[in-house]
Amino acid sequence: MPCHIIIILFHYISYCKHITFSQNLQQLPKFFWLFFKKHTSTPSLKNLLLQRSTRLNNEYLITQAILTATSMKLPNIYILLICLFTSFTRFIIETTAFNLTLPHQHPDPEAVAEDVKRRVNASLSRRHLLSIQEKGQCQTGNPIDDCWKCDSNWANNRQRLADCAIGFGQGSLGGRGGQIYVVTDSSDQDPANPKPGTLRYGVIQDQPLWIIFSSNMVIKLKHELIFNSYKTIDGRGANVHITGNGCITLQYISHIIIHNIHVHHCKPSGNTNIAASPTHVGWRGRSDGDGISIFGAQKIWIDHCSLSYCTDGLIDAIMGSTGITISNNHFTHHDEVMLLGHDDKYALDTGMQVTIAFNHFGQGLVQRMPRCRRGYIHVVNNDFTAWEMYAIGGSANPTINSQGNRYTAPTDDNAKEVTKRVDTNEGDWAGWNWRTDGDIMVNGAFFVPSGAGLSAQYSKASSVEPKSAGLIQQLTLNAGVFGDPRDDSGSISTPGFSGGGTSSTTNTGVQGSGSSGGDGDYFGMIFGSGAPRPASTSLIFLSLLTILILCTITNHVALESFPLLSL
After folding, report:
1. Is residue 286 annotated as a catalytic residue, yes or no?
2. Which helix (DSSP H) or strand (DSSP E) does residue 203 occupy?
3. Whole-prediction pTM
4. Of 76, 292, 297, 527, which sits 20 to 30 A from 320 (CA to CA)?
5. Which residues, listed in sequence order, are joined to residue 249 by a DSSP beta bridge?
6. Which residues pair with 384 in a beta bridge?
7. Closest to 183 measured CA to CA, from 156, 209, 207, 164
8. What is the mean pLDDT of residues 192-206?
9. Out of 368, 373, 374, 435, which one is annotated catalytic?
10. Counting beta carbons within 10 angstroms of the beta carbon of residue 193, is it exposed (0 to 12), middle (13 to 18) or buried (19 or more)?
11. Are 249 and 227 spatial neighbours (Cβ–Cβ below 8 Å)?
12. Which residues contact 3 (CB under 8 A, 6 or more apart)?
């Protein structure tokens, strides 16, 4: 009997050796179907299994595998093994879905949030120690900018920027350690065979590159710009606009930094051949028209960009993307601003971790700032000037940690709520971990917390409370491309949109779980979202051990008498 089990497991490991653990589990039905189909002989017990199949998770392929197994001359232990795997597979997938498979996922997201707080406080402390004259010259309290901008020789040490990321995208190397590549040609004539000197030629190279620009330029893309790993786009010192068809695609790559560029008026395109590396040109279907599309990518940092007027999202991160920081950007004039998560049923997005910090969500925005599915999203020290429908939305139980933001509601009394649970009733979302801590609510804005965000457990934190709206203004003062004007009016002629009001109140959520804004200059937060931790791998081994033990015990017992089939 043990030999039979070893043979089956050996076949299964061979069948799935190139895919991840969670994908292995999801391949079980297909594997058993193929394995037993190969050994089909005479029937037995088919009627009994037909009657019980709906109790085995209603998985079509699993049922077919069991029926085929009973149609051949195999020991009952084979069928028992299938039934046990049927019972355990879904449970194991659910309990391990937090992401045992995504690379670059941080095992302790609260530690990342704590590090963001520490770095903001450290930057603010340095700012206090400086004289008023020195403050105006350099220190802002924004830890990213203070990390590199205070170096008067930054232009000769550009790669220092790679050390300045915070949050989940910290450690994004970009092109650090690689050569400097200078874009001298703004054209994009042949996406399948780009010319040296163009941006497209630089981003597809295999080696790390730190890409800068020789002068101000508008790069009108013919089709989507597909990046290779380990690239930095550094627009400092030039006024760079990327627009046109497709725009930026980061697909199945890692270690990308995009800094100080404009991305706007991006349109769908495709159905053509596009180079993705010096040695690979592939057919691409039609793109969505996102400004920046992050697809199955990790360690991505988007900083100090100005994004607007795209067909779909300004930034979308989907299909298991993680380790992302979106910071110091300026978003304007768009409907669906930011999507985090592919689909409610896409389990790998449970491991997504994104930090959204020091951004200015400005004029003419409607919704999705962001709209989250699954994952852990840290929204910290952003300025939301206004929105038309809602600011932060989500479905499929994402953890949303909102700290030290300023939310300015529109004048529409029906759109004051910051949050929106999309296509979900309260009975389902009441347990989701959404919290507000130290957020400033303006013009009647209010945040509806849920889950652990309503718990008194956060009151035990003793940190100094976040700075009020004055600090948010300072931290987001330079959001977007350096030198671009900041517009805080919150009003635009877009139909149905009007700006924020003038009254300011502190709101910690409908049921008062957060802390109010204080007068201190430190960014103090309360931590401990209560999000479930990844299931221990010992549970997996325990499940497999249980299967082996039960198989041994029941080796000489008729399958018809086994309890699983008599439920």
Report:
1. no
2. helix 199-203
3. 0.68
4. 527
5. 226, 293
6. 361, 407
7. 209
8. 99
9. 368
10. exposed
11. yes
12. none
